[in-house]
Amino acid sequence: MNQRxxxxxxxxxxxxxxxxxxxRCDARLWxxxxxxxxxxxxxxxxxxxxxxxxxxxDVDGEVMDxxxxxxxxxxxVGVDNIDLEAATQRGIPVGHTPxxxxxxxxxxxxxxxxxxxxxxxxxxxxxxxxxxRTWEPRGLLGADVWRATLGIVxxxxxxxxxxxxxxxxxxxxxxNDPERSMEVEEELDATYRSLEALLELADFVTIHTPxxxxxxxxxxxxxxxxxxxxxxxxxxxxxxxxxxxxLLEALEKGWIARAALDVxxxxxxPADHPLVxxxxxxxxxxxxxxxxxxxxRMAEMAAENLLAGLVGQTLPYCANPQVYEAGTR
Length: 329
Ligand code: GLV
Fold this sequence. Notes:
alpha/beta, Rossmann fold, binds glyoxylic acid, 2 domains, 7-stranded parallel beta sheet, 5-stranded parallel beta sheet
């Protein structure tokens, strides 16, 4: 970079990444708590070569056409908020941060499984509200995780890391994915099942697919009706994979026992939404990758992608590698 490139960063990411960017570019930063409105992004990218964005920013063709972007770098692994096809058509590589948040997200998934099974939020509330009177033989009975059947929908990086944790709990592992993985089946003793069979058999169903057209509302009314009335649904992937209205009905009518959600549709879920007030539903605010290590590494990777794109190098972690095949870059 002879001349310092102008870049727009849509939120305060960890300093490790910001320092790398500031070192090489003129960075303008949206420092507010909430995401920048679309008009602000449109205006800001008009003279920028690079955009570093978050999963809460809608990055469509309009944003891409508002300036002359050489690179879009997403501070997340999921890129469903970015129109990848539009980016590829325009020859803009899109970076993301796979791998470094896998274990943090798998840990959080397990925390949700355990918290729902053992009713941790209800137990905490009981103590806080001064209702802990004595040791109760029938109080707050939950479900066993140990040796239960886990159904993993989407056996990618995070789904596999969840399966690895499940081995320690001697769970029976079922999975569904567009592709069978013989290696994981062998290593973790996981069994491939159709989605329908998995839903019918699992005590815990956990979702780890990306959000694409085929997975939007994958867990709909019919899917929820297939699950056991004692089952727990966990979603740490994307909110729109589950039909929120159908989930509400399933919990109200007892089609399933509990849900634990790190992601919701809409997101954020308003505090007065019925799912938030339900005793048998746990909602946490999209914190899957929220460990210091994961977020620091994500910031560095996002910066690496941004800086590579600005000098026309292949992005080290690219979400639309077809952009290079197309020969437009
Ligand atoms: C978080 O949800 C991510 O996609 O990184």
